[in-house]
UniProtKB/TrEMBL annotation, chain A:
Protein name per Swiss-Prot or TrEMBL: EF-hand domain-containing protein
Keywords linked to the UniProt accession: Calcium
Cited PROSITE patterns: EF_HAND_1, EF_HAND_2
Matching Gene3D superfamilies: EF-hand
Keyword Ligase attached: no
From TrEMBL, chain B:
UniProt-listed PROSITE patterns: EF_HAND_1, EF_HAND_2, IQ, SER_THR_PHOSPHATASE
Protein name in UniProt: Serine/threonine-protein phosphatase with EF-hands
Record-linked Pfam families: EF-hand_7, Metallophos, PPP5
Keyword presence, Nucleus: no
Catalytic activity: O-phospho-L-seryl-[protein] + H2O = L-seryl-[protein] + phosphate; O-phospho-L-threonyl-[protein] + H2O = L-threonyl-[protein] + phosphate
EC number, as in UniProt: 3.1.3.16
Cofactor(s) named in the record: Mn(2+)
Amino acid sequence: MATIDEETNIAGEAGPAVPRVTLRDPVRESEERANQARLKRLTEAFTIFDQEANNTIPSTELGTVVRSLGLVPTEGELQDVLSEMSDDSNPESIHLDRFLSVMNVLLKDRRYQGEPESKILRAFQVLDPDNNGFISEEELRNYLCKEGEPFNDEEFQDFMTIALDDESGGVCTYKEFIQNLVVEDND
Amino acid sequence: MNHPILAQIVPQVAALSDRADKMKMVSKLSTLSIDKSASKIQQAFRKHQARLKLKKQAAWQIHEKLEYSSEQTEAKLKDMFEKLIKASGTLSPSVTKLLHKAGLPVEEKELLRLTNPENIRVEPTYRGPRIEGPITRKVFVDLIEAFQRGQVLHEKYVCEILHQARTILKTIPNFNHVDLSNLRHVFIVGDLHGQLADLLHIFNSNGLPSTDNAYIFNGDFVDRGRNSVEVILLLMVALILYPSSVFLNRGNHEDIMVTVRYGFHNEINHKYRTRKAPLVDLFKDIFSWLPLYSYVDAGKNKIIVMHGGISDKINLKRLNSLARNRYVSIEVPPESKSGGKRLTEEEENEYHQIQDLFWSDPDPRGRRGCRKNDDRKMACFFGADVTQQFLKKYNLSMIIRSHQVKQDGYEYNHGGKVLTVFSASNYCGGSNWGAVVRWDYNEEEPWIISFKTQGVEMEKMSFSKQVTLFEDPAYHSLMEKVMTNKTALLKEFTKADTKKDDHLPLTTWADIMSDVLQVDLPWLILRAKLVQEDADGVLYRSMFNDYILDNPKFQMSNTGIMEDLYMWKDMLLALFNLIDYNHSGFISRNEFADVIKLILYGENGSGDVNDAYVEELTSAMDFDRNGKIDFNEFLESFRIVNVKKPQQINEKSKGRNKSGSINGVIVEHKIRV
């Protein structure tokens, strides 16, 4: 399929228009479209947290925005992303343009992808050496508030609300919990 | 300590596991593994929480934008009236006269006669509260208890209260002067919207209004909630009891054209069937006598409190001296004093000031200056510079206003110079806090008290379940909008589908959604709940698969007409309620045809109307072929039905506070400075 552009002829004179034929490149087109969709998706996620509608978000919200897009950087990795995006003159907030350019690359390169369900299950099993199928609140508190990238009190509370969703009396049957936890990605 | 998994990962460990001196290495390795495992779990959880927050924000946005979008009908109606008054004779004189009536003050003598409490008899079967003798504090408390039990006050006593309140309101100047050197402190309450539980909670925690416990109620007492009548009655009683410490400001919902669409009318119809017309007129009159704003002298600070906001046109001197009861409805311009059809320039200016006072918002994008309010399509967005100039001109420290729902129940703007306070918690099925402001004499800053009144079940629910509950009505409203615009959407979709393969690129689909539905939402984030897609793009037809627009009373198979009627539903409702002034529920075929012409006139902007189309519509509506149209029933029987689950009829959550039970209220309370 071809589209036709009209242009002046090569000598640059304003002579009769010479039609120029451009070939459509379906692969490039679909890449273009994917790019556009990605940018729009990123802008939407950013804008939703942009309370003052001035194309910035507070740096403290970056974690939420990035994770809401399905990426799971560690806290350390998040700091790296933050420093790439923030502006020295205004470190407290992140501007949409910086956000877009950094995130576009991260998404394209498929960085910081999350773990599949099976790996999370394995992680729980490490914490459950006797293979009981469940872990008590006490143990969870020990692990999750002291190891890895510890939860603060609020995070742990929220975690336990979901973890103890079924009336299992103070323990977390992690297999079911994982099903509640793993959210479908549609990007 | 022979950990099976560890042994698989590190075979050497298995070999060494029975050697005590190697135990240290084993435990170190397992600690590493625990560390990594904990990290994985924490990461997965944090991602989950972030996704939830996103969903919640998205639902909130849908909620907000759709609310504005429905309020745009006010602007359309207003424009239509303006056109009507300026144009000449497109409609029959009887309809024109009736529409004019909306903007006219009610004839006082007749009104008082029709609602004279002495002429109203109370049946011996009435078991509700009574008011015998003067209205006292005991009456106030009795009413609160009765309303809490769900009782409805007899119309005799309603008229008693309203007559007395009206007398007082007529004596008040256009603004309330609130002097804290006497009163010591004042509570400022924002939108209540008929949510009795919130009002009662406010009284419970902060004390009933009294001579030394002053209150300002900043408008929007009615509409949307289930107890608009009870809320406004209590405020009126408070005013009667303590006129020097209870102050009422008018809101944009204290307006007959608005209450006709947002529930107050229906509530009166439902609770006071026999005398609904004169009661509606009485409220209409009382609304027009409500003061325009309050001026609070807090010693070191002087604060102005109004419902909506300001603009660059606001002139307090003018506002203080105008005849406020001429503005019966803020949407219909008052009659010109000059006797001509049009308002003079001065009168136009005055009319715009009134609109701005009740409908404006601080600019949501932080821009400077004053510009047309894009969300509501009338009044202004005002910038920080406008606020600054206004405050300076009138020697004020701050503006306190309401009008917009806020997540925390309050919000500061313009560098702390504008404070929004909204007191209806969990508004319209949402999950926002309500707030109340308290200013003490000579204090630099106010106290802000936030609260939520909600059913017990909500509290026990996990965050994700709460989000789902909040999402459902939002998405349902969105689907309604989609379904009513199905024809227009499909037209644009097929036009853009150049390859004719029923697919569209994501961004193209999103742009069309924004354009046709006239609402700017994060479509890509929302798309999973709306439409199917595959590697080739969005399958746009799938958006309409799950729902149908249905009306059991409608026998016509022409879905185009059904969609048009549904799309104009709000306008039709408003116009019909005006025409059917004695609220019989019927209008004649001719009147119906006139109203359709009016709407088409408003849409096309010209006098040309397709007569055949009007005839088709009218015939479709006249079910019994008796020349009368029972429109209320018809309009109310529109619904969006999920065809996958035919038994489950999704109720539109308009006006329904899901957690509105007054008994079993759980309250969360936080105080901030």
